[in-house]
Amino acid sequence: MLSVENLGMQFGGLKALSEVTMKVERGEFLGIIGPNGAGKTTFFHAVSGIYLPTSGKVRIDGAEFQGKSADAFCKAGVARTFQTPRVFSDMTVHDNVRFAFTFGNRGGDASLIDEVIDEVHIGSLRQELAGELPPARQRQLEIAMALATAPRLLLLDEVAAGLTEGEVDEVARLILRLRDQYQLTVVWIEHAVRTLMRTVDRVAVLHFGQLLADGAPAEVTADPKVISAYLGDEVTQ
Ligand SMILES: Nc1ncnc2c1ncn2[C@@H]1O[C@H](COP(=O)(O)OP(=O)(O)OP(=O)(O)O)[C@@H](O)[C@H]1O
Ligand SMILES: [Mg+2]
């Protein structure tokens, strides 16, 4: 579904991503972890047309996409959320999702708008202004907006940030359900390592812009490089 080869993103002297090569297979659920500033969000920007990578290739279903617009990525079935939710504050929940549906323009049925609002559990907030929702609700709205574009690949950037462990588990269940219902390939960036490890099929670890490890959760959790760089004794005890 998605592959990157020697992907690099440089900001002046800073290499936010350096020679990252990896694949996400169709139907797979990949988690991405790594310390603050490791390049996780930059990776999403580079594979959704927000940033033009300074080197390397981005492929969607085998076709080269580096240098294409966010709109082109969207039309190819890539949807994402932002770490800081980007919603239209002075529009209602419904109108935000309707906008995303129109932007996606995949010729589907407009009933998808109401369906995805219900699916992410914000049905009772339909007529509320997006700007008046608390951050956690704005993130749910962003997921609904992403789903309204009828994606095949869903990229989630810290959609469970700031939630309690129980709430993070709920978000994980929601993502799994959405994945099954809409047959999505999912990449989820999250610092809540325990829940993430329990949920995903595979985990990639970014560290100073490099891919430090990539494998099954149990493998990655036991990897000494990962433990010393990031996990410490957080998930090993
Ligand atoms: N537009 C930009 N201009 C300059 N530097 C940037 C830009 N975007 C990101 N960076 C830098 O690139 C590095 C990686 O940032 P990024 O946001 O990808 O990290 P992250 O892994 O998502 O971190 P966090 O867990 O805190 O969200 C950081 O050092 C950041 O300051
Ligand atoms: Mg980030």
From TrEMBL:
GO molecular function: ATP binding; ATP hydrolysis activity
ABC transporter domain segment(s): 2-233
Ranges annotated as spanning the membrane: none
Transport found in the keyword field: yes
Domain of life per record: Bacteria
InterPro entries assigned to the protein according to its UniProt record, in alphabetical order: AAA+_ATPase (IPR003593), ABC_AA/LPS_Transport (IPR051120), ABC_transporter-like_ATP-bd (IPR003439), BCA_ABC_TP_C (IPR032823), P-loop_NTPase (IPR027417)
Any Pfam family matching the protein: ABC_tran
Keywords linked to the UniProt accession: ATP-binding, Cell membrane, Membrane, Nucleotide-binding, Transport
GO cellular component: plasma membrane
PANTHER family per record: CONSERVED COMPONENT OF ABC TRANSPORTER FOR NATURAL AMINO ACIDS-RELATED
Name of this chain's protein: ABC transporter ATP-binding protein
Organism name: Noviherbaspirillum saxi
Lineage: Bacteria, Pseudomonadati, Pseudomonadota, Betaproteobacteria, Burkholderiales
